[in-house]
Specification:
Length: about 675
C-alpha cells in the first residue's frame, strides 16, 4: 500500500514559427496544432510519508538539463526538500513534433534557433503544474505491474549495426528490437482507477519531417485513446485518469514498419549505408503502415494502446515494499571504466561523427552525408576546421573509429556545445526499478544495462527485481550504442558522444547505484559535480512578434472560406478565418484553446463543445502572409459514428496591437463558421 497521486497539465507552448525538435531540420517550423502536448506526473509515497518518488513523462522531444534545473528550483521553492534531484525522474516521450528551443547547450541552438523563453517556460510550468496536481490529490492506493509483447509496431532501423553484436549474445533474443511493454497500473483503495505508466521502446516518428503541426505522435495518440476511454464524456486533456506512454531504449527502433525504400524508384534501400542507386542517402526513407503519416500515427498508436489496455485489465501482480532513490552527477567526458582486472579504458570529451549529419531512414540529413562513414570527408572537414576549429589529436584518438564532424567538447563559445555533467539515477518502487537514462540507448545497449542492474540487485540481497529503462531523462546526451555497434558508425554510433566506451561507463555507474539501493547505503553515494546553469535570458533567431494586421474591410475572426452546408461522417469540414499569430495566445494564456467544434441542442437552445484543439480529429493550420497578415484554417475530420445534427466550428485567437511606441497589448477575438449539418 502506498499514497498515490497523478496529474496532467498542458505543456504545448507556441505552435507557430518555433522550430520543431527532433529531426534537426531547420525549415521544419511549427505552423499549427494537431494534438496538445501534456506533462503527466505520478507520485508514489510510503504510507508514513517518510519517502516519496516522482515520475514525469512529458510529450516533448527529450528532457533538457535546463528544463530539469528550472523545474527542481521551482519545486524547491514550493516544497522545500520534498522533491529533489534524487527522487524526481523527468522523462521525455521523444515526439519529434514539439517546439524546440529549451536547451542551454549551444549545439541545440543551431537547429532550434537559440533559447526560446516561451517554449522553455511552457514546458517547465507544465511539468511543475502536473506535479502540483498530483501532490494535491494524494490518496491511499495500490500498484500492479504487468508485461506483454507488442507486435507489428517496430523495426530496427540499423539492423547492420545490431548484427555486429556477438552471435552468442544475439542468439539469446528472438528479435532485433525489444517488443516487451511494461505497464504500471494505479488504483486507489476503493478500486477507483487513477492511471497507468507504460514503457515501450519505439521512436515517436510516425509523423515525418514534412509535418508542421505540433503533436505528440504515436505515443501521444495511445495516451489520448486511453484517457478518452477512461474519462468518459470528457474533452481531451480533461478528466482525472492519467495514462502515460513513456519512452525506453528506443535508440535504433523505428515505427516505420514497411522499412526503408527509395522514394524516387520504390526499391528497398535496406543496406549498410541506407543509400539509393540514384540520389544517394537523401532518397532513402522508411514508411509506416498507413497510407499517410497521420494514418501511420493512428495505426501504431492504436497497436500500443490496445496492448496496454489488455495488460491493464489483466494486471494482478501487486507491487509492495519500500521506496528508494539514488542519483549522481557524473562528468561523462572523464570516466575510467574497468573492463576487467587488467584493462581500464576511458570515456571521451563529447563529439559527433560524420554520420550524425546523415540522419536516419526516419528523417534524412542535409547535404551528401551517408550512414556508416568511418572516414572523414576532406571538404566538410576543411570547412569545419575554418569555422569551428580542428578537433584535438587526443579527442580524435579517443573516439576512433569515429571520424569527428563536430568536436563539441572542445567548443565553448558562447557556452559549451554539449554537457559534460550528466545525471545517472535509479528509483525503486518495491520490486520495480526504474533506470532513468540520459539519452537513447539502442536495443542491445538497453538489454545489457537492464541485465547488469538486475544482476547487481540479485547479488546484493534484492532478487527478482523488475528492471525497466526510462528513456530521454534529465539531460540529453544523444545515443548510447554498444562497443560493437559503435565500430560501424551508423547514425546512432556517430551520435554516441562520449566515445566507444560510453555504454560500459554507464553500466559501471548504474551498477553502483543499484548496489547502493540493494544494500541500503544510498546516503554514502557521492553527489558528484553540479551541472552548470548558464545565465541566458532569451537568445533567439525566431522572428520577433509584430503587430497583427488585416486586409481592408476585414476584421480578425472574419470567415474567408466558409464550410459547406452538409457533411457525412469521414468527410472533412474546413473553414478559413482572418487570423493572428498563435504565439500571441501562447504568451497570454496557459490553457488557451484555439478552436471548438460545437453541436446544437434544440431542447436547451444552446451549443455544447464536442471537440477541441487537443482532439485527434481537429487540425489547426496557421498560414503567415505578408506585413503582419495571416490566415487560420481549421479542419474537422468527422469521425465514424458522429451523431447527426447541427454543428459549427469556432476559432479563438489574440491579436497584437500597438498602443504607443514601446507598448503593445494582445487582444482576444473569436470567429465562428456558418452552421452545417451532419447527416
Amino acid at each position: 500500500n502506498y499514497l498515490l497521486g497523478v496529474g496532467r497539465a498542458d505543456c504545448t507552448g507556441p505552435v507557430a514559427e518555433i522550430p520543431l525538435m527532433g529531426y534537426a531540420k531547420l525549415d521544419q517550423v511549427g505552423g499549427g496544432l494537431l494534438m496538445r502536448l501534456y506533462s503527466r506526473a505520478f507520485i508514489v509515497a510510503e504510507l508514513d510519508d517518510s519517502r516519496r518518488v516522482v515520475f514525469v513523462s512529458a510529450d516533448i522531444g527529450m528532457m533538457s538539463q535546463r528544463v530539469r534545473l528550472e523545474v527542481l528550483r521551482q519545486l524547491k521553492s514550493k516544497y522545500g526538500e520534498l522533491y529533489r534531484h534524487d527522487n524526481v525522474i523527468l522523462s521525455g516521450t521523444h515526439t519529434h513534433s514539439g517546439p524546440g528551443g529549451y536547451f542551454q547547450y549551444t549545439l541545440f541552438w543551431i537547429t532550434s534557433k537559440g533559447l526560446i523563453r516561451p517554449s522553455l517556460n511552457a514546458i517547465v510550468n507544465g511539468i511543475v503544474k502536473s506535479i502540483d496536481i498530483a501532490h494535491q490529490n494524494m490518496k491511499r492506493g495500490r500498484l500492479f505491474i504487468n508485461r506483454g509483447t507488442v507486435e507489428n509496431s517496430q523495426i530496427n532501423r540499423s539492423p547492420f549495426s545490431y548484427l555486429e553484436n556477438p552471435a552468442a549474445e544475439r542468439s539469446r533474443y528472438s528479435s532485433n528490437t525489444d517488443k516487451e511493454m511494461v505497464m504500471l497500473k494505479m488504483v486507489d483503495e476503493n478500486e477507483q482507477e487513477l492511471g497507468l505508466i507504460s514503457w515501450f521502446a519505439v521512436h515517436p516518428v510516425s509523423m515525418n519531417n514534412t509535418n508542421r503541426l505540433v503533436n505528440s505522435d504515436n505515443m501521444g495518440y495511445a495516451s489520448y485513446l486511453f484517457e478518452q476511454e477512461k474519462n468518459k464524456g470528457m474533452l481531451p486533456g480533461e478528466g482525472s485518469f492519467v495514462a502515460a506512454f513513456a519512452s525506453s531504449n528506443l535508440g535504433d527502433v523505428s515505427p516505420n514498419t514497411k522499412g526503408p525504400f527509395c522514394i524516387n524508384t520504390g526499391d528497398s534501400c535496406n543496406n549498410p549505408e541506407s543509400t539509393c542507386p540514384m540520389g544517394g542517402a537523401k532518397m532513402c526513407m522508411a514508411m509506416g503502415p498507413g497510407n499517410d503519416m497521420f494514418d501511420s500515427t493512428r495505426i501504431i498508436g492504436q497497436n500500443i494502446y490496445s496492448k496496454a489496455r489488455e495488460l491493464y485489465e489483466q494486471a494482478s501482480q501487486e507491487i509492495t515494499g519500500p521506496l528508494s532513490s539514488a542519483h549522481q552527477w557524473v562528468n561523462m567526458s572523464d570516466v575510467s571504466v574497468e573492463l576487467n582486472a587488467t584493462h581500464t579504458v576511458k570515456t571521451c570529451k563529447p563529439a559527433l561523427g560524420h554520420s550524425f549529419a546523415a540522419g536516419t531512414i526516419d528523417g534524412v540529413g542535409a547535404f551528401n552525408f551517408t550512414q556508416g562513414s568511418t572516414e572523414g570527408d576532406p571538404f566538410w572537414d576543411g570547412i569545419r576546421d575554418q569555422l569551428l576549429g580542428e578537433p584535438s589529436n587526443e579527442t580524435k584518438a579517443c573516439h576512433k573509429p569515429k571520424p569527428i564532424l563536430f568536436s563539441t567538447g572542445e567548443m565553448t563559445r558562447p557556452h559549451p556545445w554539449h554537457p559534460d555533467i550528466v545525471d545517472v539515477q535509479i528509483v525503486a518502487i518495491g520490486s520495480l526499478a526504474i533506470i532513468a537514462v540520459p539519452g537513447e540507448f539502442t536495443t542491445m545497449s538497453g538489454r545489457r544495462l537492464r541485465e547488469a542492474v538486475k544482476r547487481e540487485f540479485d547479488s546484493h540481497g534484492a532478487p527478482g527485481m523488475d528492471v525497466v529503462i526510462a528513456g530521454l531523462c534529465n539531460v540529453y546526451t544523444h545515443y548510447i550504442t554498444t562497443y560493437e555497434e559503435y565500430q560501424v558508425q551508423r547514425y546512432e554510433a556517430a551520435s554516441t558522444i562520449y566515445g566507444p566506451h560510453t555504454l560500459s561507463a554507464y553500466i559501471q555507474l548504474y551498477r553502483e547505484l543499484a548496489r547502493s539501493i540493494a544494500t541500503n547505503t544510498v546516503q554514502n553515494l557521492q553527489r558528484g559535480p553540479e551541472p552548470p546553469f548558464f545565465s541566458i535570458s532569451n537568445l533567439t533567431l525566431v522572428p520577433s512578434l509584430i503587430v497583427d494586421l488585416v486586409a481592408v474591410n476585414k476584421t480578425f475572426g472574419d470567415v474567408l472560406q466558409e464550410v459547406r452546408q452538409q457533411y457525412q461522417p469521414t468527410e472533412v469540414a474546413e473553414v478559413t478565418f482572418v487570423g493572428a499569430n498563435p504565439r500571441n495566445s501562447a504568451e497570454n494564456a496557459t490553457e488557451h484553446n484555439f478552436l471548438t467544434v460545437e453541436r446544437y441542442t434544440s431542447t436547451s437552445d444552446s451549443w455544447h463543445v464536442v471537440q477541441n484543439d487537443a482532439s485527434w480529429d481537429t487540425r489547426f493550420y496557421w498560414t503567415k502572409g505578408l506585413l503582419g497578415r495571416s490566415n487560420v484554417t481549421i479542419e474537422w475530420h468527422i469521425p465514424h459514428g458522429t451523431e447527426p445534427g447541427i454543428y459549427r466550428i469556432r476559432y479563438f485567437g489574440h491579436y497584437k496591437r500597438r498602443l504607443s511606441n514601446n507598448l503593445t497589448i494582445s487582444i482576444p477575438f473569436e470567429g465562428t463558421s456558418s452552421v452545417f449539418e451532419i447527416t
